[in-house]
Amino acid sequence: MLSGDIIVVGTTSDDPLASDVAYFMGQKSDISDNIALKNFANTEFCPRFLCDENDFSHIGDSLRGKHVVIVSTCSGELTRNARAMRTFLVARAAKDNGAEKVILVEPDLFYSAQDRGPRRSHGNVAFVRTKEDYKKFDGQPFSAKLYSELLYTSGVDAVMTVHNHSVSVQDIFNNRFNGYFYNLSPAQLYADYLVKHEQMLNPSNGFVVCAPDKGAAPFVTEVYNRMCEVTKEYLIQPQPQLLLMDKHRSGERKVTICAAESSPTSLEAIKGREIVVIDDMVRTGNTMVECCRQLKEAGATRIIFVVTHFYSSAEVKENLNDASVDDIITTNTLPNILNRDMQGRLRRKMLILKIERWIAHTLKKEVFNIPVSENERLYALDISRKNPRWMSTIGLQDDGNDENKN
Fold first, then answer.
1. Do 104 and 151 meet the contact criterion of CB atoms below 8 Å apart?
2. Please, which pLDDT band fits residue 203 given cuts at 50, 70 and 90?
């Protein structure tokens, strides 16, 4: 497929992730030159794909043969509900004007937390549901399934997201989109950065890679295996170790955390070691901080918390400011995290792996069968000068970024 047959758009003006994905896809025109996003006086949203206003021969057919990529993120002030409605209308505008395919890129897939409902047929989960679990959803809609159906009805043909851990959501979207559901795993990105950059600071003692609970164990094991592969390239670096933790809830926000019986590494073995704790998301930080405290009490010297989806709420910033968490590495699936004000006091700990190039690389390779280079680094770094690691990352930052202005 030719790159000119692909049009990348967003659902809000100047979405930074959408603009960067378009750039790495080779799109020379600005998104605003491809689509107008306007609101009528009555507040209704009406997108319009821009075409030659003097062409009366292709009315309703200006996107014939085109593949439209819609990039939707939670940047700016609009709610997820408002953004979802915008996605429906942009997708419908593409199809109503002849687009061959519509691909939605939503790095943090909306409504994924509502991945089951009150009935037995509502959700294919990886555990045995109890009456108490069904009751939690009593009276609610099965929102994840509804969202998939609305996207499909709107004209979306394929969906791409990042590190969605819900078995139920994966099942729903795979079925609805006939297998054209791309759930990107950032395991290789994390392994590459941790081994080649963080571990280089202390190559004599390898990391202990830690899963904070059973749900995180499969992904953390994937990161661990990839770190082992990357480490083999460096003769002086020791292999990482794997620690699996388990948690037991004794209240709505109270948990007890200990090493799982199946863990290859014990808590006693981590004394004097650096630990990398990895999870898919953080919404409050309570459980993560409790895990990190346990690790520090067991003798860990430094703890790096790696998380894909970072919700920068006041509660998260308060909790993760705890002394048990030394460093935080996240991605910009939620682009607002690039704003230093959103990081607040955590800017001294936080480093962000920017994933636009990785998303574009995957779109080219997996969706459009466009040849790509397998040797390029697929992430860039964003870090505040107030972070002690700033000087050691200068060579890894993208030209033109504004990291150095903070």
1. yes
2. low
- Given this model, what pLDDT does residue 82 score? 96
Query: Which residue's entry shows tokens 């990161």?
Result: 223
Fold of domain 3-184: Rossmann fold (3.40.50)
pTM above 0.85, yes or no: yes
Tally the residues of the chain. Answer: 406
Domain positions in the chain: 3-184, 187-355+374-405
First and final C-alpha spacing in the chain: 41
**For residue 313, is pLDDT > 70?**
yes
Q: What is the dihedral of CA 279, 258, 264, 234, to 10 degrees?
A: 50
Q: Which residues are registered as beta bridge partners of 50?
A: none
Mean pLDDT score of the chain: 91
Q: Which residues, 6 or more positions from 178, have their beta carbon under 8 angstroms from its beta carbon?
A: none
> What single DSSP character describes residue 117?
-
Domains 3-184 and 187-355+374-405 fall in the same CATH topology: yes
403: tokens are: 């990291």
Question: Domain 187-355+374-405's class?
Answer: alpha beta
Question: If 0-12 CB within 10 Å is exposed, 13-18 middle and 19+ buried, where does residue 353 land?
Answer: buried
SS3 16: helix
Closest residue by Cα to residue 310 from 338, 285, 330: 330
Joined together, the tokens standing for residue 61 give: 């057919």
